[in-house]
């Protein structure tokens, strides 16, 4: 069965026929969706702030390091709980909407289906949300927690069990819940209601038309700044890690000059990838990343103490499940280890928040057509399961090496974490090849993070007219270069610690946006549940005619004639009257491939609520009683009504013009009622002239609504 093209994932322009009221008749003008325009205010302000911080760090590194350290110490002591509570609330919220009745809602119309298969989608989830830091912390994290845990003594069996659990917790579902929230909200509003794929659009139900003004600009600026510093943290890790990888393989020195060269190489590769777009560049790199990471992990599992590691995986899963509820809200208030909190929980939570705008947007881009339940479960479970297994294998292997007497390895992994991963690989057969594979994989991780981040930041700083439009290519190049420059500036200041501190600072403003997004998504989902699909009250012709139409074939010629003679005049009258009174109404007509019948699409765009859509779409269907093997020519045409969220489940064929107008008005009024705002339509309803039955009925229902308490 064919479905309407409302949810089309194809990029590019789509022609529309826009009806506006001029001299008393409808005027048809063909328009094309243009390329996205740069939002110069967002671009300029965010770029200036980031450039100023980069310049400050490069010209006055000592002063920058001192100021940044003081700010972070104050924030961690007084506001660290904000990060902890925010991630806990977010996890609870996305879990609730996934298991509730709202989980069945699709990120797109009800008839939309995913573009990417499960393997490709999983690979892109994995590569977008996990960077080179997984190799960095997969060894350094567990070793550091084993030797110097936040509570209790180090180098004990209990410390060994806690070490992997703490590292898995910091890479766990709390952080992934942020990606699930942002991705679900952006995908819902972009693909279900055709709003731009942007952070500001996700707040539409809360702040209304202000998303187009300075409030929306401020939201995008906060998203850009948080994203840039979150990316800089990951790419800083990547540069340090890859530098030591080259030292291990070729004896190259660990020096800032090598790190500059690596940053330039990574930025160059990222530019090529992000300019290519999602399908050709990012998709292929993600799949390659995914399979190479699995190969490295299996090598260590098979070449190491396989039985012990499998036992440890099972134990770590159990420990994580049993300890998670207490850990998620643990602020360590009674004996707070400030340095540990700054380096681990507070930093990681800020890091997740900083990554959430661009990763959430990227996940929304690749998840159109999936249900909210499928999306949330996939984002929470699939990448985290892999991460937990990865950390368990590498972390327990590293801890076992320390417990077996290799104290030098333990001290190095804790104090010089970029060395830890390669020093562990050095203990396995084929270490040189394995290290080379790890270095190549790390470079791909670096590029994947940089290119997807640059692509999304280009979108943040643009005004798109279609959910699948990307920002200008020159903008992607600019942001890739800006992130590279910031990464190097932070390394000049004080190395990775300074990048950590800046991430903590810059992520704080975006926590406000996270709460607003939760409120907006909840409000919109509740309203949508009120839009129950009902049959047209006026019927579609006499009952015997309807039975005859169900039982026999309605061909393309009959369907097209009905559209021309009945449907088009009805929709033109509605669109013309709305346009006359100032509403942004448009009516489009396009042929449907393979059916030979046009579809009609009436859309009303509002400044302070979600758009209204009434689409009549020809659906090919075998008539009642026809067998599966009968000829294609026996298919009948149903003229089904579709809203922005999918088919309403009934055929308008046979309705009179008055019946069809009345059905449109019913739908329109129902839409306004569920959105909770009538301000946009007051003029339309008040200024109706020479009302016919439909207009008169429309006015009467408006008056009845006003009388309600």
Description:
With 709 residues, the chain is an alpha+beta fold. The chain has two domains: 5-33 and 540-707, no CATH class; 99-526, Amino acid/polyamine transporter I (Up-down Bundle). The chain has helices spanning 40-59, 61-99, 118-129, 133-147, 157-170, 173-193, 204-207, 214-250, 256-276, 278-303, 306-328, 338-343, 345-366, 372-403, 407-415, 417-425, 431-460, 473-494, 496-530, 543-551, 556-580, 657-675, 682-686, 693-707, and strands at 16-21, 26-31, 37-38, 462-463, 584-592, 597-605, 612-621, 636-643, 646-651. A five-stranded antiparallel sheet has the order 5-6-7-8-9. A two-stranded antiparallel sheet has the order 1-2. The chain has a two-stranded antiparallel sheet with strand order 3-4. Strand 1 and strand 2 (26-31) form a beta hairpin.
CATH class of the largest domain: Mainly Alpha
Q: Find the CATH topology of the largest domain.
A: Amino acid/polyamine transporter I
Could you give the count of β-strands? Answer: 9
Unreliable parts? 1-33, 532-539, 624-632, 677-709
| Radius of gyration, taken over Cα atoms and rounded to an integer in Å | 29 Å
Q: Alpha-carbon distance between the termini?
A: 45 Å
Number of helices: 24
> How does the major sheet shape up?
5 strands, antiparallel
**How many structural units, i.e. domains?**
2
Mean pLDDT: 79
Strand content: 5-15%
- CATH architecture annotation of the largest domain: Up-down Bundle
Strand order of the largest sheet: 5-6-7-8-9
**Structural class, from helix and strand content?**
alpha+beta
- Supply the CATH superfamily name of the largest domain: Amino acid/polyamine transporter I
Helicity, as a percent range: 55-70%
- Overall geometry comes to elongated
């Amino acid at each position: 069965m064919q479905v309407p093209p409302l949810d089309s994932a194809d990029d590019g322009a789509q022609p529309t026929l826009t009806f506006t009221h001029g001299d008393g008749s409808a005027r048809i003008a063909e328009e094309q969706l243009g390329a996205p325009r740069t939002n110069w205010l967002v671009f300029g302000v965010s770029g200036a702030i980031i450039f100023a911080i980069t310049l400050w760090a490069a010209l006055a590194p000592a002063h920058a390091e001192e100021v940044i350290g003081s700010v972070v110490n104050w924030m961690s002591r007084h506001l660290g709980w904000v990060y902890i509570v925010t991630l806990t609330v977010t996890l609870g919220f996305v879990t609730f909407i996934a298991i509730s009745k709202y989980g069945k809602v699709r990120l797109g119309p009800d008839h939309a289906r995913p573009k990417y298969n499960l393997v490709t989608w999983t690979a892109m989830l994995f590569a977008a949300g996990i960077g080179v830091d997984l190799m960095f912390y997969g060894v350094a994290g567990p070793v550091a927690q084993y030797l110097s845990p936040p509570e209790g003594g180090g180098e004990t069996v209990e410390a060994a069990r806690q070490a992997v659990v703490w590292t898995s917790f910091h890479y766990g579902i709390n952080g992934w819940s942020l990606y699930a929230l942002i991705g679900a909200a952006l995908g819902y509003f972009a693909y279900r209601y055709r709003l731009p794929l942007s952070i500001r659009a996700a707040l539409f139900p809360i702040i209304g038309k202000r998303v187009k003004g300075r409030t929306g600009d401020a939201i995008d600026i906060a998203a850009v700044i948080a994203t840039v510093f979150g990316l800089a943290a990951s790419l800083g890790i990547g540069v340090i890690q890859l530098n030591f990888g080259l030292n291990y393989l070729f004896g190259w020195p660990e020096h800032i000059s090598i790190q500059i060269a690596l940053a330039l190489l990574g930025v160059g590769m990222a530019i090529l990838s992000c300019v290519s777009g999602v399908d050709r560049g990012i998709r292929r790199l993600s799949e390659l990343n995914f399979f190479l990471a699995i190969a490295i992990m299996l090598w260590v599992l098979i070449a190491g103490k396989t039985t012990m590691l499998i036992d440890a995986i099972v134990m770590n899963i159990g420990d994580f499940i049993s300890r998670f509820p207490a850990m998620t809200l643990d602020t360590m208030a009674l004996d707070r280890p400030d340095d540990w909190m700054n380096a681990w929980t507070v930093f990681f939570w800020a890091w997740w928040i900083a990554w959430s705008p661009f990763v959430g947007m990227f996940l929304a881009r690749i998840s159109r057509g999936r249900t909210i339940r499928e999306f949330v479960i996939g984002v929470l479970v699939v990448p985290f399961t892999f991460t937990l297994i990865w950390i368990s294998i590498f972390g327990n292997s590293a801890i076992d090496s320390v417990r077996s007497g290799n104290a030098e390895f333990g001290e190095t992994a804790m104090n010089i974490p970029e060395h830890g991963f390669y020093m562990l690989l050095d203990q396995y057969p084929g270490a040189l090849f394995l290290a080379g594979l790890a270095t190549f994989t790390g470079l791909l991780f670096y590029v994947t993070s940089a290119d997807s981040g640059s692509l999304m930041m280009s979108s943040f700083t643009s005004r798109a007219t279609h959910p699948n439009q990307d920002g200008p290519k020159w903008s992607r190049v600019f942001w890739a270069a800006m992130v590279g420059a910031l990464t190097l500036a932070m390394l000049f200041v004080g190395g990775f610690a300074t990048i950590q501190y800046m991430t903590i600072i810059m992520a704080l403003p975006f926590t406000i946006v996270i709460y607003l997004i939760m409120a907006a998504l909840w409000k919109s989902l509740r309203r949508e549940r009120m839009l129950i699909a009902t049959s047209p009250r006026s019927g579609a012709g006499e009952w015997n005619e309807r039975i005859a139409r169900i039982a026999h074939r309605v061909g393309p010629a009959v369907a097209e004639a009905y559209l021309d003679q009945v449907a088009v005049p009805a929709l033109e009258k509605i669109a013309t009257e709305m346009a006359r009174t100032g509403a942004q109404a448009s009516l489009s007509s396009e042929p449907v491939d393979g059916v030979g019948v046009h579809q009609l699409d009436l859309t009303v765009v509002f400044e302070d609520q979600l758009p209204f859509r009434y689409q009549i779409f020809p659906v090919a269907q075998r008539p009642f009683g026809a067998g599966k093997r009968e000829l294609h020519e026996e298919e009948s045409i149903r003229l089904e009504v579709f809203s922005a969220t999918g088919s309403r489940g009934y055929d308008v064929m046979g309705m009179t013009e008055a019946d069809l107008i009345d059905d449109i008005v019913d739908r329109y009024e129902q839409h306004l009622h569920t959105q909770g705002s009538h301000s946009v339509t007051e003029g339309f309803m008040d200024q109706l002239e020479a009302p016919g039955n439909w207009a008169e009925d429309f006015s009467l229902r408006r008056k009845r609504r006003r009388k309600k308490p």
